[in-house]
Amino acid sequence: MMQRVIKSMLMLGCLIPLPAWADWPEIPYPWDAKVESIGEQVRLNGVPMRMRQVIFNQSAKETVRFYRERLGPKLAEERLPGGERILAQGRGDYFITLRIRPASGNTSMALVSVSDMRAAREASGRPLGFILPADSRVLSDMESTDAGKQSRQLVFQNPLDINTNRSSLARELQSRGYRPDVSPSRKTPDAEVLYFQGEKREAQLTLVRKDGLTQAVLTTIRTP
């Protein structure tokens, strides 16, 4: 599971940028914004990303105005239900996305991500590195590294039943040094949660059966 480190930005009267990573673009923040780091290194579907969750001491409308002024005219906007806005901008070989929504009181929150589009092209067709049950379709693959701890969340679905998925995935995990945990699994007729342990590693597998499909969420963690 991804560690989160909350940093309070306390420099009065200035803008706080994301830390510089080589030529990655910097995103400005108001001086009193609170920023949560989501992994030192993050990959979503093989694409390197820098991700932050930000809390603003201003309304969502004011936050949108703030970024309109600072990111310039080449900024795509999309309105979502509930007052959410998505702002997006290409900048060289990078793509910036801000998902802004209202929070409690007169505050707002945003998930800020910067994607390396050069690496996205290279990641196309990359091997998954994990054998999934037959007819599986990957919905999401997120990897994160924090202080040497490597986490991965793989979400996929297939038409196979829960028992078939459980057996196939347990074999694959055991081949990678994971063994079933002594803790009993949580189970209902249409869902099951299983736990696995190993040397400096652990995993959780959630299986849900609905509308003729099984959706699986596999989270693995390896510590240094």
Note the main attributes of this structure.
single chain; 224 residues; mainly beta; TATA-Binding Protein; Double Stranded RNA Binding Domain; 2 domains; 15-stranded antiparallel sheet; 3 helices; 15% helix; elongated; disordered N terminus
Written account of the structure:
This protein is mainly beta. The chain folds into 2 domains: 4-122, TATA-Binding Protein, CATH 3.30.310; 127-222, Double Stranded RNA Binding Domain (2-Layer Sandwich). The chain has helices spanning 60-71, 117-123, 162-175, and strands spanning 4-8, 16-17, 28-29, 34-38, 41-44, 47-56, 76-79, 85-91, 94-102, 108-116, 137-146, 149-158, 179-180, 186-188, 191-198, 201-210, 213-222. The two termini are 15 Å apart. Residues 1-21 have low confidence and may be disordered.
